[in-house]
Amino acid sequence: MDLLLATGNKDKVKEIAAKLAGLPYRVRTLDEFPGAPEVVEDCDTLEGNAVKKAIEISQFTGLLSLADDTGLIVPAINGEPGVYSSRYAGEDVSYADNVNKLKDRMKGVPDGERGAYFECVIAVAYPDGVVGTASGRVDGVILREPRGEGGFGYDPLFYHEESGATFAELSIAAKNKISHRALALDEAKKVLAGLAHA
User: Fold this and answer.
1) pTM for this model (two decimals)
2) What is the pLDDT of residue 196?
């Protein structure tokens, strides 16, 4: 069966496809579907955005679709960037723009109060509107300066204490064992199995 990844983010596609390897699905990507709608992420929750993306893309393509929405939540700055993580510094910005804005916002935050967590919500939708969701969370600390060349998004600033590294210092394989998206995808596999028998 085909499973469409409802994201245009090539970095997310790489991570998700690697995590889903071995499942009985042929992974498809949005670039195979010219004219697919650009889903507006205007919900006020990660789950709302993930469900909206999965349903709209599934109905457009007629395929089982998987979408995620991910946020970095930093309690010391009122939960920012949260649901706005991908566009924290504005629309059509680079990963570096968002990282630099977060660094600026965190300048006055002392070391003991720099805790943060990544949360990922994954939605899986059939064209008939049947939807299942899964989520994952991982805790860490926001560094003062980026470290590492891998990963994407806020990974260079997000230090995972158990690994002793930022997410940008981990290989995809290592990150795919511990990250918020990896945990959500593990749960999503169960959702996929349940929907397949629904």
Assistant:
1) 0.90
2) 62
